């Protein structure tokens, strides 16, 4: 065989598609085979796109059918391993859609079935509370937690998810039946103490880890009813620290008894005994024939005045009150019941009556790290008027209300009250604000707290002694050393 024939055979074998596979696209000898492979790749991509579009359409149809199926039929449908579909499937409690869960909250699922705390909090927000926003947002305070009127806290709530004691406490918070930093903190720790007594550690879990995870959704439920006070936040941090310090080999009953004992000691030392010490300090400051001005209602201020009166001191009290809560009436009733001479005025008459006052005695919601006093709104105005008349302002505050937060105004962090509380006005012409929601140019703002500059406060009376406002960081540092 000649060399020419062999070359022709080799060329023919290269061109034959049966004997030689097609060259890849972008090869050196790219001809028609490369063009054919490019067309096939484009067709494959288009086919994949069509399949994806069909799958998406099918998923949309399936999710739409699940949302439209009644609850009875959806409960018989397929569910996951834990008895409920994931959050991405938008169904909870046996196939009930999230849109229906706000209306039908009668699902019975156990908190142990929830895989993570984040999911538990998500389910609580969607299943446990039905609420409606009241009023419109004020642009300057739109970043704050907007007030929402809660109703149906207890309607068909599963006892396996939220204990009845926590649900009852949330209702009392939202309705304003329990108010005040001390009262709210005492009630919260009492509810948690009951939860700890009823708690049992699941198999293959440690109490020091599982109990903290169990309390997280309960705390979130309380926050949904009303934002936590500074005293409640500090108490929760302390309780979590106590839980984490429990040794793994400690028996369950012994650990629960120690936690309950620690809660009782915390309330005894940080609240009850602290109030006794503050009251004794106030009795030393109050003199005969003093005229003391108080604002709204503070449990420690009322206790101090009653104790001073029982010791034989003769003084007069001016109770300043303001709408909408009129908390000063509670202070007035208690002081009059003890036989203390009192006068009752409204907030707009403070500048008129201040010239008769010898001391201003106020309570506090919190004492911030920069020395500012956070208290019932109106406290800053009263302190400013007292400063202009050279009247000393004394603030009674327990050290467990001290906060590491820094705040110089009431805009960054505050709590919004119910705007409808401002509506009831007794006038002969009728209620002027009854149709305020129909007026687009009118917004009602009901702030709860304000902050008072340390320059306006003469002294802070605590269980650690009579201190200036600038001593807050020192007290916080010492308290951290005592805890650790």
TrEMBL record:
Compositional bias of kind Polar residues: 65-77
Record keywords: Cytoplasm, Initiation factor, Protein biosynthesis
InterPro entries referenced in this protein's UniProt entry, alphabetically: IF-2B-related (IPR000649), IF_2B-like_C (IPR042529), NagB/RpiA_transferase-like (IPR037171)
Source organism superkingdom: Eukaryota
Keyword presence, Transcription: no
Subcellular location: Cytoplasm, Cytosol
Location of the region described as Disordered in the Swiss-Prot/TrEMBL record: 1-99
Biased composition (Low complexity): 81-91
Single GO cellular component term: cytosol
Function (record text): Acts as a component of the translation initiation factor 2B (eIF2B) complex, which catalyzes the exchange of GDP for GTP on eukaryotic initiation factor 2 (eIF2) gamma subunit. Its guanine nucleotide exchange factor activity is repressed when bound to eIF2 complex phosphorylated on the alpha subunit, thereby limiting the amount of methionyl-initiator methionine tRNA available to the ribosome and consequently global translation is repressed.
Oligomeric form and interacting partners: Component of the translation initiation factor 2B (eIF2B) complex which is a heterodecamer of two sets of five different subunits: alpha, beta, gamma, delta and epsilon. Subunits alpha, beta and delta comprise a regulatory subcomplex and subunits epsilon and gamma comprise a catalytic subcomplex. Within the complex, the hexameric regulatory complex resides at the center, with the two heterodimeric catalytic subcomplexes bound on opposite sides.
UniProt family annotation: Belongs to the eIF-2B alpha/beta/delta subunits family.
Name this polypeptide is given: Translation initiation factor eIF2B subunit delta
């Amino acid at each position: 065989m000649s060399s020419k024939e062999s070359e022709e055979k080799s060329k023919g074998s290269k061109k034959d598609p049966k004997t030689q596979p097609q060259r890849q696209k972008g090869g050196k000898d790219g001809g028609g085979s490369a063009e054919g492979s490019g067309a096939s790749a484009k067709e494959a991509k288009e086919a994949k796109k069509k399949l994806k579009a069909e799958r998406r359409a099918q998923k949309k149809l399936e999710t739409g059918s699940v949302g439209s199926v009644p609850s009875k039929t959806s409960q018989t449908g397929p569910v996951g391993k834990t008895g409920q579909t994931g959050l991405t499937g938008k169904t909870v409690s046996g196939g009930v859609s999230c849109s229906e869960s706000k209306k039908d909250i009668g699902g019975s699922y156990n908190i142990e079935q929830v895989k993570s705390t984040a999911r538990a909090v998500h389910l609580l927000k969607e299943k446990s509370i039905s609420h409606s926003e009241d009023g419109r947002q004020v642009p300057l305070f739109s970043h704050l937690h907007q007030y929402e009127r809660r109703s149906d806290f207890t309607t068909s709530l599963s006892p396996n998810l939220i204990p009845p004691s926590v649900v009852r406490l949330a209702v009392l918070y939202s309705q304003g039946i329990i108010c005040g930093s001390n009262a709210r903190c005492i009630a919260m720790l009492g509810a948690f103490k009951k939860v700890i007594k009823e708690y049992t550690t699941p198999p293959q879990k440690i109490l020091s880890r599982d109990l903290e995870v169990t309390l997280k959704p309960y705390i979130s439920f309380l926050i949904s009813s009303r934002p936590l006070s500074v005293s409640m936040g500090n108490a929760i941090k302390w309780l979590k620290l106590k839980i984490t310090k429990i040794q793994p080999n400690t028996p369950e009953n012994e650990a629960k008894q120690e936690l309950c004992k620690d809660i009782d000691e915390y309330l005894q030392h940080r609240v009850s005994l602290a109030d006794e010490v503050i009251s004794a300090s106030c009795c030393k400051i109050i003199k005969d024939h003093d005229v003391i001005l108080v604002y709204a209602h503070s449990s420690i201020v009322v206790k101090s005045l009653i104790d001073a009166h029982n010791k034989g001191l003769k003084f007069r009290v001016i109770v300043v009150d303001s709408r909408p809560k009129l908390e000063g009436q509670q202070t007035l009733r208690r002081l009059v019941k003890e036989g203390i001479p009192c006068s009752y005025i409204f907030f707009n008459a403070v500048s008129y009556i201040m010239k008769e006052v010898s001391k201003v005695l106020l309570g506090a919601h919190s004492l911030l790290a920069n020395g500012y006093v956070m208290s019932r709104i109106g406290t800053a105005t009263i302190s400013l008027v007292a400063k202009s008349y050279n009247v000393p302002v004394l603030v009674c505050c327990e050290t467990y209300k001290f906060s590491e937060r820094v705040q110089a105004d009431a805009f960054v962090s505050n709590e919004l009250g119910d705007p409808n509380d401002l509506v009831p006005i007794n006038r002969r012409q009728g209620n002027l604000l009854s149709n305020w929601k129909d007026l687009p140019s009118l917004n009602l703002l009901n702030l709860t707290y304000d902050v008072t500059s340390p320059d306006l406060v003469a002294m802070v009376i605590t269980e650690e002694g009579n201190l200036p406002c600038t001593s807050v960081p020192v007290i916080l540092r010492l308290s951290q050393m005592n805890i650790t």
